[in-house]
């Protein structure tokens, strides 16, 4: 296994072998055709699967630290890495052998190695992808920013997305206090999206926010909807 540590912009250092650490994380990857849920294999010309790990800010749950890259043969279907005790975002990139061309990138998975060893799997969709979004709440009458608790969406309150396209629809619910999320998988197509903030009893807290003509692209692409300003009555 070759481990790479990537600096914030352009610095790259290569270290052969695994670094001694406190926990192991085993990640598996597979390829799926979403329309009929059939299995696929590693794409021709993209024989490397890299497991990427980045420490996160415990307040925002966003990646902030150095990025560590562990490279594996794509056909192996899994790899095990070692990480120190910390909290990480971990994802998989499918690339050519020298990582100059990328086929697909998986979504992030939160990993807390202070709890011990961990394992998870990711699916790479050859005909679909995901929406990613972050959000803030504001008072509709004044434009003042609100916390989830002040808006009535604290605790089990949620931000809810209804996504509708020509061939598929989906509903996704996120805890308001997470402030970001990734939807369930969607076929590559153009979608209309309705967004609501709800309290713990599923009561809407403002007018529905509507976004039209947003595209999902394949393979496994993540379409960023940006930071949505959700109005609260």
Per-chain topology:
Blueprint: E1 2-6, E2 12-16, E3 23-33, E4 38-40, E5 48-56, E6 63-73, E7 78-83, E8 87-95, E9 102-105, E10 109-112, E11 118-125, E12 128-139, E13 145-146, H1 148-151, E14 158-164, E15 169-175, E16 180-182, E17 186-187, E18 189-198, E19 209-216, E20 221-232
Parallel strand pairs: 3-11, 12-20
Antiparallel strand pairs: 1-2, 1-6, 3-4, 3-7, 5-6, 5-8, 8-9, 8-10, 12-13, 12-16, 12-17, 14-15, 14-18, 18-19
Supply the CATH superfamily name of the largest domain. Answer: Carboxypeptidase-like, regulatory domain
Name of the top-level CATH class of the largest domain: Mainly Beta
Broad shape: globular
Number of strands: 20
Could you explain how this protein is built, in words?
With 233 residues, this protein is mainly β. It folds into two domains: 2-125, Carboxypeptidase-like, regulatory domain (Immunoglobulin-like); 128-232, Immunoglobulins (Immunoglobulin-like), CATH 2.60.40. 2% of the residues lie in helices and 59% in strands. The chain contains one helix and 20 strands. The protein has one helix spanning 148-151, and strands at 2-6, 12-16, 23-33, 38-40, 48-56, 63-73, 78-83, 87-95, 102-105, 109-112, 118-125, 128-139, 145-146, 158-164, 169-175, 180-182, 186-187, 189-198, 209-216, 221-232. It is globular, with a radius of gyration of 19 Å. It starts with a strand and ends with a strand.
Keywords:
233 residues; mainly beta; Immunoglobulin-like; 2 domains; seven-stranded antiparallel beta sheet; 1 helix; 20 strands; 2% helix; 59% strand; globular
